[in-house]
Amino acid sequence: MSRSGALDDNEIQTEMNKMVAFISQEAREKAREIQVKADEEFAIEKAKIVRQESLAIDSQYEKKKKQAEVGWKISQSTAINNSRIKVLRSRNDHLESIFDDANKQVKDLSEGDRYKQGIENLILEVLLKLLSPNITITHRPKDKELIEKSSKTALKKYKDISGRETKIEFEDKLSNDSSGGIIGSSLKGKIKVDNTLEERLKILEQKMLPELRHDLFGVNENRKFYTVSFTQSPLSKLTWRLLREQY
User: Between these two residues, 137 and 206, which has the higher pLDDT value?
Assistant: First the structure.
């Protein structure tokens, strides 16, 4: 049955309560929707920030890791180089001690009979290198008699080999404290051949270094070619033997 006319106060209050309840329900649902959407947006933004910060931390970590690796490699390379330098210095000191001992033995050699046998070859070598009609031979004062005697024999051999003749003058200007040998010169000293035992030893040192290093320290893995040749004169062979006996 329908009703017409105005509503009384109770009915009006009831209708208002219904409207208020409806509005409140709509508001709560809308609030829940807003809260859910806000939570979703917060989670997305949070994940985005976390990812960005994580990438930044990873990038910083990789950078510091690379810096640490570079620093470690530099330290390792420096340590290896320092070790190599110490090894090379030690090897060089050992080689120098060998040459020092050899030099002492060469001085002893210059006082023995083998020196008398070798001096003639030194003079002959000077003659054949200079091929001059006038040659000056410089020697130790104490070798004067030996030099003059050996020169006569060397001149004969020189003539047989070259078919030439030469005149020798003598100067006793080498120190008696030296290892001996001679210096030959021509053209008033413009051309010289240093055949002193000190100079011959220096030449042999340079030529012998590769073989000495091989004998003392083993094969050098970084070395690909070996071009070692030695003077084959009797005196050079003798000096070479003395050097090799040092170790």
Answer: 137
- Beta strands (DSSP E) in the chain are 134-138, 167-171, 181-186, 191-196
**The CATH number of the domain where 133 resides is what?**
3.30.2320.30
d(CA 180, CA 56): 78
Distance CA 239, CA 64 (A): 60
φ/ψ bin of 44: left (φ > 0), alpha (ψ from -120 to 50), beta (otherwise)? alpha
Q: Which pTM value belongs to this model? A: 0.54
Does residue 6 have a pLDDT over 70?
no
Nearby residues of 171 by Cβ (< 8 Å), 6 or more positions away: 136, 137, 138, 139
Domain, as residue range, for 148? 112-244
CA distances from 5 to 18, 147, 180 (A): 20, 162, 153
Cα–Cα distance, 211 to 220 (Å, whole number): 11
Contact indicator for 163, 205 with CB cutoff of 8 Å? no
Kindly state the tokens that stand for 174.
């080498």
Instruction: Give per-residue pLDDT as tens, 45-82.
Output: 888 898 888 888 988 889 898 999 999 999 999 998 99
For the chain, what is the domain count?
1
Q: Is residue 13 part of a domain?
A: no
b/e per residue 19-51 (b: at least 16 CB within 10 A): eeeeeeeeeeeeeeeeeeeeeeeeeeeeeeeee
